[in-house]
Amino acid sequence: MLVVKRVYAPVAEDDGFRVLVDRLWPRGLSKAAARIDLWAKDVAPSDALRQWFGHDPAKWDVFQHRYSAELAKNVDAMAALRSELSAHVRGATLLYAAHDEQHNNAVVLLRYLQAQHA
Fold first, then answer.
1. Parallel, antiparallel, or unpaired for β 2-6 and 17-20?
2. Where do the domains of the chain lie?
3. Could you tell me if 12 and 95 are in contact, meaning their C-beta atoms sit under 8 angstroms apart?
4. Fewer CB within a 10 Å sphere, N or C end of the chain?
5. Nearest partner of 22 among 78, 105, 93, 80, judged by Cα
6. 86-112 average pLDDT score
7. Is 18 helix (H, G, I), strand (E, B) or coil?
């Protein structure tokens, strides 16, 4: 089982393996409080794409396409992430810092990973 969750939400027992999928560390959050098992910044959107998107829902469709294209080209980092995720049968949680729960890179990454398993 793989889910997404905002990194600022309380840590829960059913989070399983906690993976931060942002390139930047979340503001105001200590590493101890975040309880991150893996910081997968290599699968986060490029700085240029992240800055272009700016969490603007009007750019969501294009962002999803561009980010998915980046993921497809990032073979080594994606293979490493899949390997880490498959090692945790209890499940895993992809963590993100954005305020918008529907328009963020973790949502796109989750869909991308699920499509690869279909």
1. unpaired
2. 2-117
3. no
4. C
5. 105
6. 94
7. strand
